[in-house]
Design brief:
heterodimer, A: alpha+beta, eight-stranded antiparallel beta sheet, 7 helices, 8 strands, B: alpha+beta, five-stranded mixed beta sheet, 2 helices
């Protein structure tokens, strides 16, 4: 029996806490970056099929801006920060001060793209460092990669390792959004997709081992 | 809209007119369409990995791998009235979504998927009529068994038909 089949609800609760800690720090970093109050929804941890994952961001062909990092070290996995393109545009404009930046049609402005990549880098970095402080696991992110494309095409990349073992994933999903309801409201998703062998390590590091 | 049969990730299905068949958000995955023009029946698979030997667990999802998915499609199409001898194929996908210099073989999975699909088709003597593979964009594809046209939509390049 695969390890994932032995995961129980209290394990998911612990993984939820993992998401809570990481995303909490990322939300703080984003608040500082934008000088706006950023709110973080309690993360949801779900065991869902590959197809269902893309439904979390509005369907497989929903166009998103995604920053992707591979995690290396004690608990390898994939991490995504995904924002709908309209909101990625606003986010970039806010940070660069360039009101003409657009992500509707290429070519995209290089400076804006690298700003967006850097935002993702900062957010993912703060997510990860708090996570690795808490779990005492050595987690090293790869250089981030940015893609503006369909969510399904992007997410499937992070599912490759898992797909060799199972047909579903444990998704640690946190939604962060701006508190003020305005037209430029920002919201994004953090997806943490640990590789199969990493769940066990994470849970062990948090003191809730999985029994055979 | 209700006439479209949707195929999810690591999934497959077959279709007859007036229905069309579609899969969305192909990245490194490859969408394979097999069809019999005369019998007007078509099948589509959304393949994630090149070989079922990559599967590390006991039972496998046949739709996930190039080698098993194509065989399963043929089997289902035959049951639905297709003649194996007249099956043709169209494929799309196999992109490289991110450019990592990482040594990880998994990062090159798009081209490997395409290769595996082509090899399997060749082995089974199924003619590959057209393809739209590689690049670095996601694709959504829809096949119409009535016209045998495969419509491909990408975010940056718009629509194409092959």
């Amino acid at each position: 029996m695969s390890f994932l089949d032995r995961i129980q609800s209290h394990h998911l609760d612990v993984l939820k806490e993992v998401g809570n800690i990481g995303a909490g720090h990322a939300a703080t970093a984003l608040s500082k970056l934008l000088n706006k109050v950023i709110d973080m929804r309690v993360p949801s941890v779900r065991v869902i099929s590959f197809s269902e994952i893309t439904e979390l961001v509005g369907g497989p062909d929903q166009v998103v801006a995604a920053i992707f990092l591979r995690l290396e070290g004690d608990a390898p996995g994939s991490m995504f920060f995904m924002v709908p393109v309209k909101e990625a545009e606003q986010l970039t404009r806010h940070v660069t001060g360039d009101e003409d930046f657009q992500l509707q049609e290429p070519p995209f402005q290089e400076l804006g793209l690298s700003a967006l990549e850097e935002i993702g880098n900062i957010l993912a970095g703060s997510y990860l460092s708090s996570l690795s402080d808490f779990t005492k696991l050595n987690l090293q992110p790869s250089v981030p990669a940015l893609s503006i494309d369909m969510s399904g095409a992007i997410l499937s990349y992070g599912l490759l390792e898992l797909s060799q073992v199972v047909d579903y994933a444990i998704v640690i999903d946190t939604k962060i959004s701006e508190v003020e309801r305005s037209e430029e409201q920002l919201s994004g998703h953090f997806f943490l997709l640990p590789d199969p062998e990493s769940f066990e390590k994470m849970l062990k590091a948090l003191g809730v081992p999985v029994n055979e | 809209m209700n006439d479209v049969v949707k195929v999810g990730m690591a999934d497959l299905n077959i279709v007859k007119p007036p229905h069309t068949i579609r899969t969305s958000g192909l990245g490194s995955c490859v969408g394979v369409v097999l069809y019999d023009q005369c019998a007007k029946v078509a099948g589509m698979a959304h393949i994630m990995l090149p070989e079922s030997s990559l599967g590390k667990s006991g039972s496998i999802n046949v739709a996930k791998y190039a080698d098993t998915a194509i065989l399963e499609l043929i089997h289902r199409l035959e049951k639905a009235g297709a003649r194996i001898g007249s099956l043709k194929a169209k494929i799309a996908g196999g992109a490289q979504m991110f450019n990592f210099s990482s040594a990880n073989e998994m990062m090159r999975i798009g081209p490997r998927n395409v290769e595996a699909v082509k090899q399997q088709l060749k082995q089974l003597r199924i003619r590959l009529v057209s393809e739209d593979v590689g690049g670095s964009s996601g694709r959504t594809i829809e096949f119409n068994p009535e016209t045998s046209v495969l419509r491909i939509r990408t975010v940056s390049k718009g629509e194409a038909e092959i």
